[in-house]
Amino acid sequence: MFDQVTLPNGLRVVGERLTHVRSCTVGVWVKVGSMNEREPENGLSHFIEHMVFKGTQKRSARDIAEEMDDVGGQLNAFTSKDCTCFYAKVIDEDLRLAVDILSDLSLHPRFEESELQKERGVILEEISMVEDTPEDLVSEVLSQAQFEGSLSRPILGTAGLIRAYTRDDLLRYWQRHYTPKNMVIAIAGNYDWDTFLALIGEYYNAFENGEGERAETTAQRIISGRLAREKETEQLQLSLGYPGIALGQDDLFALSVFNNAMGGGMSSRLFQRIREELGMAYSVYTYPTSYPGCGTFTIYAGTSPENGEVVLREIQAELQKAIADGFTDKEFKSAKAQLKGGFVLGLESSSGRMQSIGRSMLLLDRLRTPAETLAKIEAVTMEDVLRVGRMALTSTPSAAIVGKHAQHYLKLIGG
Prior knowledge:
This protein has 415 residues and is an alpha+beta fold. Helices cover 46% and strands 20% of the residues.
């Protein structure tokens, strides 16, 4: 069972107690990511995630690192399309320190000008890394081809925008979004709920809504765009994007089973055909992605330019075969067991459980017990899998290709 409460200021606090572990993972979740940004703000969510670690009202960047290292804990953060999360994993006796540091990061960043200039350089290097990592780059290009609106833009922002942002830009954005009603604090592991709530009250007692706004995420329109990026690489990066299932919908379980059978593992059809039988790709896989209001189903392959035409043809042949003939009973049962096994194994980690309940409460405002999730997986039928798979694959795909003569290969994609 879950512990949960909404404080008078609108801050939601949720927990899942795991008595068999000695760890606690605490996360501060903020409903702000690149899909919540206006076009001139692109990259600010991620920039702020970096900057809070550069110093708070009572800690320097070195203090933050040393205090967590001194207890053997782990402190990190990430920014995604739909949220930002700061989290700490510690042994249970160090829970106070975890809450202290996380509250400091989320409520009291300094945004010092000198640190901002240094971190600007770090983020520009991060953007350059994406350009030099073809597998990451083709994913960014596919987003541009697949969406109209904020989901088409990169989480990191663009180099031009990052160079131009000022301290006032960061501060205004932070004040607008880092508000109680826009945040969730989640904990999983070995904790006492009353003790934890007392800590939250102690460190977040002065947290008021101020002039902020609650982030609203509107559905993004998926388009069937095609983009090619010419790049002098040894490999050709191929990515096809289809409509998927929005976050929170039950059909996501059926799509996840379809994904496992199609390209989600070593026994999947695309892996077996393109890598094992033909030996034409080291990496070939599929994956579903879900956002509030929309979702996608993506196919990726990295191959040599001389094999590009065959790989594209074989991918499309396997997709057509799945649409026309479906899967065998063995494939269906194996794909479903993979989904169930992956979920159960994730239950054994306090960090995994914290991430699950934190994101669910933040974006869906509800929690689903492990038993309820397993029941949803068990309820998926072959008919569900084929219906959802055909819904996705009968749509015209978006496409992105990065590499030499990319435009040539783009013309070979049907749909």
